[in-house]
Amino acid sequence: MPVTIPPFYCPIPPRLRPDAEEIDRASFSWFAALNACDDDELGYLDRSRCGLVSAWGMPDAAAGRVRIAADIMYLAEALDDTAFETGRLGRSPEEAMAFLTQLARVVEAPETPLLLGNPWAEGVRDMRRRVGGFTTPLQLQRWICGWQRLFFGLAWEASVRARELSPGLDEYVMIRVLGHTIGMEILTTLNDAADGYELTHAELNGLPVRALTEMNWMLISFDNDLYSYHQESARHPNGLNFVDVIARDLRCTPAEAVPHVVAMRDRVMSLFLALRAKTAATASENLKRYLESLGQWLRANIDWGTTSERYLKPFGPDSPPETWAALPTVYADGPSDAALEPIPVPVVSWWWGLL
């Protein structure tokens, strides 16, 4: 039986765009034209409709810029799925590092004659050129650094898989959130550019804003690991998700671990809401817009993940109902744990000192 995931606590209202479906379909067509996946993998990716996350997460941005964010979603998700989760790069740190080092250079300088004809590199090269068309040098550099950290995290994760390690909670957070395998930095770094404004270096790197940005990545990691748990455990189990990590730490079943994961996640959400309100009270108008966008991504991610066939029906649209995921259809009225006290993850405990 699938593990039941309870309703998510996220008191942030949705902001849907009328062109969301159009953006998603255009992005999927862009990715399909790269010929990076076989037909089965491409069909599975098509059912995910992951471009909707960007459309719902960037409700105020121009459609062309949202399209690039949706393209990023499709390419990053497919790269993780086909080359790392189930591909040889995911279990060969040496090959992963060699490939990702070259890909990182393509992001830095798309004119570099590296990996020419490689579909992943050509996709990254195309996105890099388009992002460079609407970002300032500082905004572009932030986005490039986000890709570099994602590549570093993928190589780290490949090393963990190859050695068949079982990371504890603190190490897992280092890999998933701070090592950036969740991939959110390549999207949140576009928040200001996509909406037509620019945050200063001082604004974006002040401690409260840094913490809130990391909380965004952490919460999306929690939520992704919860709503994707049935899909991952059914298709390619590897123990690299919050549910399995907590189950190992507490020596309990995944079903018993879920309430503990949700409680930690809700404590981070409670901190996020409180610190965001405190920070916004003295923030510039541009910084307020950025803080608002961090929350919008949280809601968009849940709305997508709990309705996407990728997670609801991992064995296909015609699979029997007993194989479907047990995902919530409503939101929680309040947090399961609202304590404004640090969760047992030392690498992020400093967040609570800012409230």
Short description:
By secondary structure, the chain is an all-alpha fold. The chain contains 17 helices and no strands.
Describe the structure.
α4 runs antiparallel to α6 (119-132) and α12 packs antiparallel against α15 (254-280). The protein has helices spanning 20-32, 39-48, 51-57, 63-85, 93-108, 119-132, 137-162, 169-178, 185-188, 191-195, 201-205, 207-227, 229-235, 242-250, 254-280, 285-305, 309-312. It starts with 19 loop residues before the first helix and ends in a 43-residue tail after the last helix. It is mainly alpha-helical. The protein has a single domain (20-354), classed as Farnesyl Diphosphate Synthase (Orthogonal Bundle). The model has no long low-confidence stretch (mean pLDDT 93).
Topology:
Layout: H1 20-32, H2 39-48, H3 51-57, H4 63-85, H5 93-108, H6 119-132, H7 137-162, H8 169-178, H9 185-188, H10 191-195, H11 201-205, H12 207-227, H13 229-235, H14 242-250, H15 254-280, H16 285-305, H17 309-312
Helix pairs in contact: 1-3, 1-4, 3-4, 3-16, 4-6, 5-6, 5-7, 8-12, 12-15, 12-16, 14-15
The run of helices and strands is HHHHHHHHHHHHHHHHH
Largest sheet: none
Which CATH architecture would you pick? Orthogonal Bundle
Distance between the termini: 41 Å
Beta-strand portion reads under 5%
Unreliable runs: none
> Mind telling me the C-alpha Rg?
19 Å
Overall average residue pLDDT? 93
Under CATH, the topology is which? Farnesyl Diphosphate Synthase
Domains (count): 1
Main structural class: mainly alpha
- Name the helicity range: 55-70%
Number of helices: 17
- How does the overall form come out from the CA principal axes? globular
- By oligomeric state, this entry counts as single chain
CATH structural class: Mainly Alpha
